[in-house]
Amino acid sequence: MFELKAWAEYAVECFAKDPYGFLTSAVLSWKLAKMIEAREKEEKKKQKHQENIAKAKRLKKD
């Protein structure tokens, strides 16, 4: 709990010193998180597609 309080104090201090820089950083961090989520989702979709292709090929051989 103490670490959270220290982090919150640090965030408030940074915001007070440079509000535009802080907000810009927050927006960029949010965008990066969304890009990472989209990439992971796309990778899972591709992996599932490859698994389905391999499964179809196995069934076709039988």
TrEMBL record:
Main localization, broad class: membrane
Disordered: annotated segments: 41-62
Pfam families, A to Z: UPF0542 (PF15086)
Biased composition (Basic and acidic residues): 41-54
Protein known as: Small integral membrane protein 15
Keyword Transmembrane helix: yes
InterPro entries in UniProt: Smim15 (IPR027877)
Signal peptide interval: none
CC per GO annotation: membrane
Upper lineage: Eukaryota, Metazoa, Chordata, Craniata, Vertebrata
Family affiliation: Belongs to the SMIM15 family.
Keyword field: Coiled coil, Membrane, Transmembrane, Transmembrane helix
